[in-house]
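Invent a record, attention on tokens:
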Amino acid sequence: MVNIQSHVCLKPYNTFGIDVRARYWVEVNHEDDLPALLHLTEFLDTPKLILGGGSNVLLCHDFDGLVVKMSIQGIDVVREDDEHIYLKAGAGIVWHELVMYCVERGYAGMENLSLIPGTVGAAPMQNIGAYGVELEQIFDSLTAVHIKTGDIQTFNHADCAFGYRESVFKHNLKGQYIITSVTFRLAKQPTFHTRYGAIRETLADMGVSDENLTIRAISDAVMHIRRSKLPDPADIGNAGSFFKNPEIPQTQFEALKAQHDDLPGYPLADTDRVKVPAGWLIERAGWKGYRSGDAGVHAKQALVLVNYGKATGDEILNLARQVQSSVQERFGISISPEVNVI
């Protein structure tokens, strides 16, 4: 039976380190506990916030409802064929631990997603991605519990309506389901993704050539890059990339490129749009290293907003809005938060 607590401090449970409280709090370790919890009469109409690693939320005030901390564990091979391993992981598994589990066993597909903070259950909601790979490329299915009915449902790839940092769980089904496990389709023979970012250069510095390339080498390269650019939440409160990289029309990109010849751009397949790094835009707008009180923009990566100690959620949010307005004014580009503001 789950243990429901009251007036719990959420500072240890969000990587921004925002000091707010939950009116009610419960930790769920087994999928079977959820239906009974959700049918408790006193909590039927209570607002609910589902937390994994707390690495993609900005908490701006106390939560006057029930916070459900998902801690379901377990990693199991559920089936395999000649080309793929199908691996089921509990929603509470730390994402990077799952990546390392796969790298150590030679299951290919996750290596570019090394060191992304958070847990497995939150990954499909956000369709997490990095260095040329997105979760949807290795996704098979997930199980989720309907918050109102307690029914368990399976969602396949099409059901999830994945997009860039998007899924059906952020739109049509927002707040309706709690993800309990995710099944991934991983390759027995790897397809290497080395074109995005500084992966090739980092591999070369590591002495890795195309002839001796492995998924472990790519994972090591990605971890090196991330550690050199991104602050550790254990040291400085942050939620990783705060903004999505905007996608703009090719014509707009070319016009901006004529004014800023070092503007990076990544053409999107089968479209007339180009993805532009939000970090570059923010840095060029003059925000890199900016600090107001304990809220700031990281000195090494302008895409990351940080809490140097005692910043409130509202202070971080106000800074984010200033950055958005500045980028819009200078470049005519709207940048949207990747982080969920609560």
